[in-house]
Specification:
binds pyridoxal-5'-phosphate, globular, alpha/beta
Length: 482
């Protein structure tokens, strides 16, 4: 399997080369040259596999530069019931009306639980694998890597819990001082591992991102200190997410004749892009429902054909903060497929039109007109009031407390139910991570998993720093593992 850039660069690297790289040399994102097809017999065989072995089967189609026995061992080490809480890893829960609620049964709706890993958000699904892949590949090359990142909460904690204690890896994670939820702060700052560095920046999330960009733009510093990233455009993260679309489908159906739809709370288009890849591989997905919050860049595109990125000032701070994005960094992958894999055209749109005008318009394009039908995408958005109403309603009718992002997914899923087609809403975080809004909706705190009891009282290790690029460079230089 070889990989190509969405912007047409001629290089064709293999999996392990793009594992440790970020963008392609032309600024594009990597995608496989073709999508392997999963036929009926294969899908039937996969039905009986445990999650780790299913992950191995899916990854094997995309990875041919790690020996099969090693890849299988990595998958089995990653996806254990100890780490993810259940044998299914991504258990499906049917939303049943409570016996005494007097409600009619809904169209078949399920929650697919992606949030039972170490940090209680779906990013663990991919990041836990990435940690093990990085450790394996760095050891094989005799190299080290210093990961520099910016987080508003979920990505940073998932990365830290995936990389803690790993040989050859050091993490420098910036976050906006005092702005993450109390639970998120406790999760990250209570880590005492020597290879984890929490840096709270006096500023907002954009200041953190700008600092990371400034450090990465210094090619000499980056090379000298072996700086890498784990952001959502990494192909290995995306392919790890493809697995749970298969696992969800397999749990919800008993025959390959059946179709399901997925509703996906979306920000950077990483999660739902994995659904797109699964569908391109032949998984019988009826619709991919893209659910955004008030930052509705993606909903606007699927409704109108206009992709219009927002300025930092136009990006709203919402109660589903992990979806507060100004642009959807994985979206270029879908546009590449939508436009028949025309690299030069994608380069024109993303490197030129977007930079110059902040938007592009595909509404008059024949490819866009058929997009929903050909690729299964539909969309919708949700507001703070919708979120509160959905959290209350889901609690009252089904006895299930959902987090704010998942609530956005349920709200938009309801607008796209198709008779006879099960709707799987991806549960992207547990409610305890965003307790304040749950209290606002329900008047009480959400349940806290036993292993996190008292986490907010643990000692903390965090350095507070001004938004000063030279200061963070000096800190990295002193603590990097090279
Ligand atoms: C990251 C995140 C999302 C958005 O996922 P994308 O891949 O960026 O679309 C949704 N919900 C939660 C809880 C998240 O952490």
């Amino acid at each position: 399997m070889r990989y190509c850039s969405t912007r047409g660069h001629p290089a064709r690297p293999r999996f392990c080369d793009i594992l440790l790289a970020g963008l392609a040399p032309d600024g594009g994102l990597y995608l496989p040259e073709t999508y392997p097809q999963v036929d009926d017999a294969t899908l039937t065989r996969w039905r009986s596999l445990p999650y780790a072995d299913l992950a191995f089967e899916v990854l094997s189609l995309y990875v041919d530069d790690i020996p099969a026995a090693d890849l299988l061992a990595i998958c089995r080490k990653t996806y254990t019931s100890e780490v993810f809480g259940t044998a299914q890893i991504v258990p499906l829960r049917r939303l049943h009306p409570l016996a005494d609620s007097g409600q009619e049964p809904q169209a078949l709706m399920y929650l697919e639980g992606l949030s039972n890993g170490p940090t209680l958000a779906f990013k663990d699904m991919a990041m836990q694998l990435l940690g093990n892949l990085f450790e394996y590949e760095l050891a094989r090359r005799g190299e080290t890597l210093n990961i520099l990142g910016a987080t508003s909460g979920d990505t940073g904690s998932a990365a830290e819990y995936a990389m803690r204690g790993k040989r050859g890896l050091t993490v420098f994670m910036t976050s906006p001082h005092g702005r993450m939820s109390p639970f998120q702060q406790a999760q990250m700052f209570s880590l005492m591992d020597a290879n984890i560095h929490n840096i709270a920046i006096e500023g907002v999330f954009d200041d953190c991102q700008d600092m990371v960009k400034a450090v990465s733009a210094d090619a000499d510093f980056k090379r000298r200190n072996r700086i890498g990233t784990v952001n959502s455009i990494n192909w290995a993260r995306l392919v790890a997410q493809v697995v749970y679309y298969f696992a969800g489908y397999i749990q919800a159906t008993s025959s390959n004749e059946e179709q399901v739809s997925f509703a996906v709370p979306s920000g950077n288009f990483g999660n739902v892009c994995a659904g797109h890849v699964a569908r391109m591989m032949g998984l019988p997905i009826h619709q991919l429902v893209v659910a955004t919050n008030e930052n509705d860049v993606l909903d606007e595109f699927f409704r109108s054909g206009v992709y219009r990125v927002r300025s930092a000032a136009d990006t709203r701070e919402t109660s589903s903060p992990s979806m507060d994005i100004s642009k959807a960094s994985n979206f270029e992958r879908f546009v590449f497929d939508l436009l028949g894999r025309d690299g030069p055209r994608v380069a024109q749109l993303f490197a030129s039109d977007l930079a110059r005008h902040g938007c592009f318009d595909l509404s008059a394009d024949a490819a866009f007109a058929g997009a929903a039908r050909r690729f299964g995408f539909v969309s919708g958005s949700s507001t703070h009031a919708d979120r509160l109403a959905t959290i209350r309603d889901t609690d009252a009718r089904f006895g299930v407390v959902v987090d704010t992002h998942t609530a956005d997914g349920i709200k938009v899923a309801r607008e796209h139910l198709t008779p006879g087609v099960p709707m799987l809403v991806l549960e992207t975080a547990l409610p305890i991570k965003f307790a304040q809004t749950i209290v606002e909706a329900l008047g009480h705190s959400p349940p806290c998993p036993a292993r996190f009891a008292g986490i907010e009282d643990l000692p903390r290790r965090v350095l507070v720093m001004p938004a000063d690029v030279n200061a963070i460079k000096a800190y990295i230089e002193r603590h990097s593992n090279v």
